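Example with several molecule types.
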Amino acid sequence: MALQDKYKPLTDAATAAGITDLAVREQDGVLYIDGTAATGAVKDELWAKYGEIDPNFTGGDLILNVNVAMDAAVTKVKVVTESSNLNIRKGPGTDQPIVGKAAHGETITLVNKSNDQWWLVRTDDGEEGYAYAQYLQAAE
Amino acid sequence: MKILKVLPALALITAIGFTSCKPKDADIKASIEKSLKEDPSTANVLVMVNEGVATLSGEVSDDATKTASTTKAKAVKGVKDVVNNETLPAPVVAPAPVVVSADDALTTSVKDATKDFPTVTAAIADGVVTLTGTIAKASLPKLMMALNSLHPKKIENKLTVK
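Resulting structure tokens for the full complex:
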């Protein structure tokens, strides 16, 4: 229970933010918070709360797995790398050969997201392959 | 002829006489309630009686309590039958255990997630991701967000934050 108390501001914020499928479980000295946030801003807000409790995330006692929901209707995604191009690979994994690149800020077509980490995308040039999902977000 | 006039009245008196021998529904209800209130576990049971048939409702803690209240109600004089509609509390569903990725899958996904952080080294053992090396403060949340979504058992962050 001590862990749940430690991270209470975070779980309270998750409840208040309307995180769907919210699950808070404590197992072997680690608190697991899973759920789906409606927007990226909500996810960032929760991580900010986590940062207030444990500034450098060094506690080793929390796994905060909150992902941003994406409407099934979304077919266009924007490349949100820091500045570089995004590699598009033949298969899901960094060991896969690069088949194309998408520019930073470019909007590309989302084909499917059957893999959580690697989404199948297609550029306007017709290059199709897998890109790392963290660098993609729903286009406005 | 006189006897014919008296007969219906006699029948009526007999009927009233028999009815009054049996306890009234309201009395039965009061007796059952009294009996149930003696035990705190059945004190909140609701009782209805209609023509000697007692209906019990409300929530009780378990099946044994439910059975016991039926027995108590049946023991009350005038009760013909007992319909027990008491409900039990909804079972508390234990949360599903946390699923931790297998080391093979985790090794691959962690490698992908740390690819863009060349100063970070990640070691995986029994689902625990141990991070060593250095990282810029601004990049730390991004790395942690990615790693937290890979279903590790635990993340031991030993990074030096610059």
